[in-house]
Design a protein that fits this description.
The longest helix has 14 residues, at about 240-250. The chain is an alpha/beta fold.
Length: about 575
């Protein structure tokens, strides 16, 4: 067996890989495997990667083939790469493009490399339902309205289609970036834009860009708009995100107020650039009724659709995404992790991942704040302990999350960080109201009117007050650049998405150069502690480590005299 001890990579037959961080060629090897493997975890010394069908098809869409992948694995592996793994990689990558969608008269033609493969799909009901008449042994007609649906069905059958049918240009929209002065595209933002526009060999113009919270994903979207100069639909997580996008468009481009419309529950404006919420797209009068606003938004002359926080795309909106296949589609996200496991639908309906930079790389370059993560474990006592042991599993999680002993830790953290911009964020409204009343801090929840939210966020930015308490409405798309401390008092079970988004609230670069601090309060030896490990998984994958302390050690921790346990 070939053995190269100087190489940092161990490639295993189950398609997982171990990469040694201390190797002199670690970064070279990391950059070589990143296009076709997903990072699973990245603690201090050995990082774990996994090769998956989606990661290989992402690589195929970017122009890599099986020989490229095997060449990189063999170049950096300590041990000989197994023959079975090579066969599996070749088989999976060969499946990408076995079906090709092209324009055909007034419709679409789906062609198969092998006539028998097309026959196989005729006998696969989930795929064949979108077929019209057969043109010849290798081709079948597909109605353009089913363009997204047939791609969705084919990827579930294990054969992602290569969509060569192109895009309509959309109505023309003149806009320019206001570059110069304090605003210029950062190198990675420009690279992300070019990766989207080029999109490998055949898929230029649709795909997903993955960048850390606070690194300027909105700017990437705006720069794509400037290049394409077309009417654009921007889909957002809510009203706060809509208004932040609008403010950025007005600050960073030559667009005017009249060019930008808001399409939400509060108003229905259709403009050359229209910002719509995911909620409005999923609205319908009854479960049996059609979605109220689909047809209105689908009938506009868009040339580009931007999906903000695409990892949060509601399942119902995939149907809308399927109907927008004739226009260019850009997904923006800090993490492609979806708790519902629908990454394949993002791949087929929005597009492949076309750009990704690890959070820690951007941090080291100084574009986002350096962050320290702490987990503080709090004992549960008295009546709360009694309620916990006498509850079912689901109820136990909430009892542990609302542990009243957390109040003492919050008080100590607020005292220590007095004068800094602090966000206290949690899941349960009763708990948040108690914190708000106890410490006389303004509270924002989903019940807070939008105008009031805007006023509070503006006051926080202006330094009118230094602390706010927020519910899950602030998990994403809330731009609070001065926030340097986040105290998480409760969260959604094991949601990795939420953990990443909440850390992201404090990652904007600080003028003071101060490190950001993320504290998560967890009740010890309970269901909450069990779920905390899963919640933290995405951030540990990105290279962040959690220092774990007991509440009794908090004073020493804040003074910097206790190192705790690191995960």
């Amino acid at each position: 067996m070939t053995y190269a001890p100087e190489n940092p990579l161990i490639v295993q037959s189950d398609m997982s890989m171990l990469l040694e961080v201390n190797s002199p060629i670690y970064e070279e090897a990391r950059d070589a495997v990143a296009p076709f493997a997903e990072i699973i975890k990245s603690p201090e010394y050995v990082h774990t990667y996994k090769i998956t069908p989606i990661s290989l098809w992402n690589a195929s869409s970017a122009g890599l083939n099986a020989s490229d992948v095997m060449g990189r694995l063999e170049r950096y592996s300590k041990y000989e790469v197994s023959h079975s793994l090579a066969v599996e990689i070749k088989d999976l990558m060969s499946r990408f493009g076995k079906f090709i969608l092209r324009n055909h008269n007034s419709g679409l033609k789906l062609s198969a490399e092998d006539p028998l493969l097309l026959t196989q799909m005729f006998h696969t009901e989930d795929v064949s339902r979108y077929f019209a008449e057969r043109i010849d042994d290798n081709s079948v007609v597909v109605d353009p309205v089913n363009r997204g649906l047939v791609k969705q069905a084919l990827i579930k059958a294990g054969y992602p289609a290569l969509d060569m049918a192109g895009y309509r240009k959309g109505a023309r929209l003149e806009l320019e970036l206001k570059t110069g002065g304090s605003f210029n595209l950062r190198p990675y933002q420009a690279a992300a834009r070019e990766s989207f526009l080029k999109g490998g060999t055949a898929l230029g113009g649709n795909g997903v860009i993955v960048l850390a919270c606070g690194s300027g994903k909105t700017i990437v979207g705006i720069s794509v708009m400037e290049q394409l100069k077309t009417h654009t639909l921007i889909l957002c997580t809510g009203i706060t995100a809509i208004r932040q996008w609008k403010a950025e468009l007005l600050r960073k481009t030559t667009l005017s107020e009249d060019d930008i419309g808001e399409y939400s529950g509060e108003c229905k404006q259709l403009r050359p650039v229209t910002l719509a919420s995911y909620q409005i797209l999923t609205h319908r009068k009854s479960r049996e009724a059609d979605f109220t606003h689909f047809n209105t938004l689908n009938s506009q002359p868009w040339g580009l659709a931007i999906y903000d926080e695409v990892h949060l795309l509601p399942a119902q909106v995939f149907r809308f995404a399927a109907s927008l296949q004739a226009i260019r589609r850009l997904g923006l996200t800090a993490t492609l992790v979806r708790e519902d496991g629908r990454e394949a639908d993002v791949f087929s309906l929005i597009g492949p991942k076309c750009f990704d930079v690890p959070w820690k790389v951007i941090e080291k370059q100084g574009w986002i704040a350096e962050a320290q993560c702490f987990e503080i474990r709090v004992e549960i006592t008295g009546e709360a302990r009694y309620n916990y042991v006498n509850s079912n599993n689901r109820r136990r999680f909430r009892v542990a999350s609302e542990n009243p002993e957390k109040m003492n830790v919050i008080r100590k953290l607020l005292d220590f960080h007095k004068g800094e911009h602090i966000i206290i964020i949690g899941q349960y409204l009763d708990q948040l109201r108690r914190i708000s009343e106890e410490f006389n801090i303004t509270l924002i929840t989903g019940q807070t009117p939008q105008d009031e939210r805007d006023r509070v966020y503006a006051g926080f930015k202006a330094g009118e007050f230094k602390s706010i308490v927020v519910s899950s409405v602030a998990n994403f798309a809330v731009d609070l650049p001065d926030a340097s401390v986040a105290i998480q008092v409760s969260g959604k079970f094991g949601s990795r998405q939420e953990e990443a988004q909440r850390l992201g609230r404090i990652l904007r670069p600080k003028l003071s150069g101060r490190r950001a601090r993320f504290y998560t309060l967890v009740t010890a030896d309970t269901r909450e502690q069990d779920f905390a490990l899963n919640r933290q998984m995405f951030l540990t994958e990105q290279g962040y480590s959690y220092n774990i302390f007991s509440a009794d050690e908090i004073d020493e921790v804040l003074r910097g005299g206790c190192s705790g346990i690191q995960i």
